[in-house]
Amino acid sequence: MAEAALGLIRKIGNLPLGAAFSVVMFAVLVILAAIGPYVVPYDPLATVPASAMQPPSLTHWFGTDQLGRDIFSRTITATRIDLVTALSAVLISLVTGTTIGAVAGWSGRWLDAVSTRVFDTIMAFPLFALAVGIAAALGNSISSVIIATAIVNMPFFARQVRTEVNRRRSAGYVEAARLARIPAPKIVAFHIMPNLVPPLMVQSSLNMGWAILNAAGLSFIGLGIQPPDPEWGIMVADGAAYMFSGEWWVFLFPGLMLMLAVLTFTLLGDALRDWLDPRRAS
Amino acid sequence: MIKLFSSRLLLALPNLLGVVILIFILTRMLPGDPAAYFAGPAATQKSIEEVRKQLGLDRSLPEQFLTYVQGLFSGDLGRSLTSGQSVLDDLVSRVPASLELTLLALALASGLGILLGVGASLRPGGGLDRLCSVVSILGQAVPTFFLGLLLVFVFYYKLGWAPAPLGRLDILYSTPDGPTGFWIVDTLVAGDLDTLSGVLRQLTLPVVTLAMFGIGPVARMTRASMIEVLNSDFIRTARAAGLPPSKVLWTYAFRSIAVPVLNTVGMVLSFLLGANVLVEKVFGWPGIGAYAIESVLASDFAPIQGFVLLMAFLYVAINLAIDLIALSLDPRVKFDG
Amino acid sequence: MNIQPERLVELNNLTIRFGANAQSGNATVDHVDFHLDKGEFVALVGESGSGKSLLAHALSGILSPAAEMKSDRFHFSGVDLSDPKSNKWHGIRGREIGVVFQNPRAALSPVRKVGKQIADVIAEHRFLRKQALKEAVLEALAAVRIPDPALRVDAYPHELSGGMCQRIMMAIALAGDPALLIADEATTGLDTTTQAAIVSLLRQQAEARHMACLFISHDLALAKDFAHRIIVMHAGQIVEEASVDRLFTSPRHPYSAALTKATPANAATVSELSGIPGGIPDLRRSVPACRFAGRCEFADTQCWTERPELAGPPDALVACWRPLS
Ligand SMILES: Nc1ncnc2c1ncn2[C@@H]1O[C@H](COP(=O)(O)OP(=O)(O)OP(=O)(O)O)[C@@H](O)[C@H]1O
Ligand SMILES: [Mg+2]
Predict the structure, then answer these.
(1) Domain C7-40+50-90+231-318, CATH 3.40.50.300 — does that match?
(2) Which chain A residues contact residue B29 at CB under 8 A?
(3) Domain assignment present for B236
(4) A19 has a pLDDT exceeding 80
(5) What Cα–Cα distance (Å) separates residue C22 from each residue in C13, C68, C240, C283, C294?
């Protein structure tokens, strides 16, 4: 057991710096999302007016906010909601994007032309502005933030799957499967898709980073998750006002945590890409 | 030129139409009764019915779409419930603030990105190259609003170098009153250097914040294209012909990759237009992004719809401009429908 | 006429190494001596990969930084150029030495009008501006026999034919009125008529301007027509250097013999040669001292262990332990 752990540590130690960092941080984030709320020292929602606005100390590592809530506990607790929001969005865009991309890439013709056009339009559009519009139209709730984030991320998956499916449509093994009268959906699902898993993993990791940013940005401007629930974007927005009276810790720590989370997924995506396709590694 | 321009415009139309359809669908997707939504939270049953008629919501969807498009063509974007003004007027009065900020940030990001990318390409693996990767990774990972707040904290609160993040100009100055709404231009035209310095001071932090996110992509594209082109035959010719290194680097090497870099700049601009919303919020900037946020929080949908449409319009216009610049930069670029 | 010709280039013991061959220690260009008199026409032939272009790049000061170059002596018109980074190269590169490359369309900037590209070089070396510069560009175009120069100045390379681009590049190479013109496979890839036109233009210009010319080619027939002296390279070594007549009538190195005898016309493009077994040795592995030994029917142990020096009368130098008589 200890040996296996040591082996793992040695393996991680041999990775390039960015990759090692992302693997370790990824594990930390997942653990925090899973058990964070149960192990934090304070109730993230409990207001203690007597201890409001205390700077970081041994009792309150990240200090307390204007209502005396413990910022460390809130920052850790927020991991789950931020990651789950982003993950839901990415899963939705992965599933819908892959489906649309596969159908478009397989059928070709006008369906392909139209969907390519639509995705090009979406991708070239100022994405955050689009997300604001969508989230506003769907109403101010977490689910609309998730859907908005999913819509702006979907084209990245659809495009990639479309290109790959289109490219492999005439490959030998696909022709063979077609001659064997295997129905098209089966060919796509069982003969083509397995090849796409690695690039889609890379794409998902990169999109996780963007989705976290997107969702936090939306909540920063007041869309989606509402106070008093702890969420990094809201906490930064809340803390911004107190910066001017010198209480920097209120916005700093959730912001750093947010940054760290995005960095983790961005670097993880890069590391996965280098690992899966060593030729592209620079 | 005019022919090219119009053919490009024709190509852009489907995109614009796509966005209009998207927005139309979104407005019909509004939860609950769209008429009630558009009438605002304080509406009575009667006024809701009125709005329904007014919006034509009692007719069929295709009919509704036609009226909707007609309305757009006549510049009717509806009325803001919060300001009571026509949305078009609101947007027009605010768009210069946003554009001044975004375009300056774009210029800064492109300039720094190109310098960094060219520098990195000269010595791959060297110091500048490493700086290039760090900048582009951080640009992807640091949240816009967080960077903005950090800069405000350090340069305004701690060091006192920057002015308070409260809009385009300190109240000490009188508002520039010029034709363009771009205050740098307006103060320059009026020869009011004092106010100009105030405008620039106010612009610095938001511009830097926004620009930070554009440097990475521009630098990476520049670096990759430069590395490729520096090994090309025509650079060897230019060197063998004894042209000075700076001429070989810029007039020959960089000039030939201007188009891919320009396309990246276009992509970055699209990104900055979106990120602008957050920067405007952080810096109290009275632009269209801040306007959109206000409207979102007030559940005032007409302005948001106008905002998204304006974004679509800007994006189409900008891409058109970029295509035309690309055409003038590279004789090989041809318009293929 | 019995005037002692004047030395233009004197290059002794040139070696060029790359990191890729660090393990085997083989130099890619190995112990090469090269000299050229003013106004002399020399041809350099050899298989693909034999180091002809590397030698040309070293001579014109444009070796890539990846190449590590060493020489005992490298003088051009009495100027010491052995340090590729020396600022003495300024004023020589492009001005005293002009180069014409192969694949002319790729060798010109795709986004700059050809007239501008010529103007850049003329302005750099002849310090002309404005109207004078414009006229000089038109003259330069006329000199390389481009019809309608006034029309062509505003063309881009992709709008011109390959032959036309090659003439443009020649105009660039001639812009500084150089004392040495290097043509590195300047006719490869062009069709036969264009080739002939380019070669005759090259000769005419070189003669008119009293330039020395280094003509690098795969095409032995062209080399034979063009040059006074021929240098044969193999795997980075010079194997034979002789006057055209002697090389074609009585080659002394087995490699040159195979080259010249390959076709009835006594001339073949090197790349088509089938008479020589094997290919150029892989320099990443260890190679025989005479790098031709592995392909030579006369080779013995000495050939494998001792490098033959280039020796013999000035018009028939050969580097071989078992030269043909
Ligand atoms: N950067 C490099 N690293 C390692 N080896 C190199 C490098 N550049 C050139 N070489 C080697 O130098 C050798 C000579 O190349 P060169 O281009 O001079 O040949 P050449 O005689 O001009 O051939 P060709 O007829 O094809 O033009 C080649 O075998 C090549 O592998
Ligand atoms: Mg060559």
Answers:
(1) yes
(2) 137-138
(3) yes
(4) yes
(5) 19, 11, 27, 10, 21
Quote the pLDDT of residue B1.
Answer: 62
**Which residue ranges of chain C lie beneath pLDDT 50?**
1, 264, 266-268
Domain count within chain B? 1
Of B214, B178, B209, B208, residue with least CA distance to B196: B178
Residue of B77 and A28 predicted with greater confidence: A28
Cis previous bond, B14, omega within 30: no
Range of the domain at B189: 96-298
Chain B, 9 to 38: residues with Cβ < 8 Å from chain A are 14-15, 18-19, 23, 26-27, 29-31
pLDDT in tens, B109-152: 999 999 999 999 999 888 899 999 899 888 888 999 999 999 99
CATH of the domain at B219: 1.10.3720.10
Ligand 1 probe mutation, C34, C48, C69, C272, most atoms within 8 A of CB:
C48
In a domain, B51, yes or no: no
Contact B274 A127 (CB under 8 A): yes
| Closest ligand by atom to C184 CA | 2
**DSSP three-state, residue B50:** helix
Cβ of C212 under 8 Å from any chain B Cβ? Answer: no
Report the alpha-carbon angle C55-C58-C61, nearest 5.
150
Residue B66 lies in a domain: no
- C22 C-alpha to ligand 1 centroid (Å): 15
The ligand with the least distance to the CA atom of C52 is: 1
Cα separation of B116 and A264, whole Å?
A: 25
User: Residues with beta carbon inside 6 Å of ligand 1?
Assistant: C 18, 20, 28, 46, 48-54, 64, 66
Atom in ligand 1 nearest the alpha carbon of residue C218: 25
C113 vs chain B: nearest CA distance in angstroms?
Answer: 9
Chain B CA closest to residue A236: B146
| pLDDT value for A44 | 86
- Judged by DSSP in three states, B197 sits in helix
Examine residue B103 and state whether it is found in any structural domain, yes or no: yes
In a domain, residue A58? The reply is: no
d(CA A37, CA A75): 10
**Mean pLDDT score of chain B, rounded to an integer?**
86
C265 touches B: beta carbon within 8 Å: no
Interface of C with B in 93-112 (CB under 8 A): 93-95, 97-99, 101, 103, 106-112
B234 touches chain C (CB under 8 A): yes
- CATH number at A205 reads 1.10.3720.10
Using an 8 Å Cβ cutoff, are B258 and B329 in contact? yes
Is A245 part of the contact surface with chain B (CB cutoff 8 Å)?
no
Contacts of B23 (CB under 8 A, 6+ apart): A133, B305, B308, B309, B312
Is the Cβ of B111 closer than 8 Å to some Cβ of chain A? no
Range of the domain at A162: 17-37+63-281
Q: How far apart are CA B54 and CA B278, in angstroms?
A: 34
Which residue lies with its CA nearest to atom 19 of ligand 1? C49
CB contact under 8 A, C124 and B241: yes
Q: Are B134 and B215 in contact (CB under 8 A)?
A: no
**Helix (H/G/I), strand (E/B), else coil: B126:** coil
Each residue of A38-81: pLDDT tens digit?
888 888 888 888 888 888 888 888 988 888 899 999 999 999 99
ipTM here:
0.90
